């Protein structure tokens, strides 16, 4: 055997490996890695059909080409909702020019008290680009079911008043309206910005 045979075979194998790597790369990039939970393929939110705080009927198709961040909440929420919306405002600031390709939606779970005017004043305080969505109790129920989100009225003051328990999470949908990430509301602004950028680049 020639002393050059082994190195030549090794080089050939290396060349084949590189060629195969090129073919595999051409088949498509690896899926993005998320900080939140990857929920790709779950079809969450497909049934969204509500009205925004300006009185315009909305579905996910209205936001085609944008990454959509959906959050369930209500304007009289004492802590979780304002904290989450403030965090989303920080995310939009972090994204810079990319924020133009992102739409934040807060769906109220308290349509009885959250009128369009109240909702508008509330969400735009955090960022004028944010939209509040509302509807009839049945429409809210259907929207929550499409995201598999939980909410319930909790009586207070001996039944004279009430608050709302609800899912505290961010749903991230890509530019095609496909649900991709479910992130806990404690994930942090940097992690949210990371996942949104991953979707903007995918």
Describe this structure in words.
- This protein is an alpha+beta fold.
- Helix content is 36%, strand content 24%.
- It is built from 5 helices and 10 strands.
- It has helices at residues 5-26, 80-95, 116-126, 137-146, 189-201, and strands spanning 37-38, 50-52, 57-58, 67-73, 102-108, 131-134, 151-156, 161-166, 169-173, 179-184.
- The strands form 2 sheets. Strands 1-10-9-4-5-6-2-3 form an 8-stranded mixed beta sheet. A two-stranded antiparallel sheet has the order 7-8.
- α2 (80-95) links the parallel β4 and β5.
- It is globular, with a radius of gyration of 23 Å.
How would you classify the helix and strand content by structural class?
alpha+beta
Q: How would a crystallographer describe the biggest sheet?
A: 8 strands, mixed
Helix-strand pattern: HEEEEHEHEHEEEEH
Give the number of DSSP strands: 10
Q: For the largest sheet, list the strands in their spatial order.
A: 1-10-9-4-5-6-2-3
Rg is: 23 Å
> In whole angstroms, how far apart are the ends?
50 Å
The helical percent reads 25-40%
Strand residue content: 15-25%
Total DSSP helices? 5
Q: What number is the mean pLDDT?
A: 88
Instruction: Catalogue the unreliable spans.
Output: 1-27
What is the overall shape? Answer: globular
């Amino acid at each position: 055997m020639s002393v050059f045979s082994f190195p030549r075979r090794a080089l050939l194998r290396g060349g084949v490996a590189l060629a195969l790597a090129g073919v595999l790369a051409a088949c498509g990039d690896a899926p993005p890695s998320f900080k939140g939970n990857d929920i790709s393929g779950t079809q969450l939110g497909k049934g969204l059909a509500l009205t925004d705080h300006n009185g315009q009927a909305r579905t996910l198709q209205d936001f085609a080409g944008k990454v959509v961040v959906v959050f369930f909440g209500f304007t009289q929420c004492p802590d979780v909702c304002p904290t989450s919306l403030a965090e989303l405002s920080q995310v939009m600031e972090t994204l810079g020019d990319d924020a133009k390709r992102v739409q934040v939606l807060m769906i109220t779970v308290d349509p009885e008290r959250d009128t369009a005017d109240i909702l508008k004043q509330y969400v735009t305080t955090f960022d004028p680009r944010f939209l509040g969505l509302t509807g009839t109790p049945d429409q809210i129920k259907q929207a929550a079911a499409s995201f598999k989100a939980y909410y319930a009225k909790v009586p207070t003051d001996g039944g004279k008043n009430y608050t709302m328990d609800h899912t505290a999470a961010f749903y991230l949908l890509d530019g095609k309206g496909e649900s991709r990430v479910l992130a806990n509301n404690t994930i942090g602004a940097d992690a949210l910005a990371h996942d949104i950028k991953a979707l903007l680049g995918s």
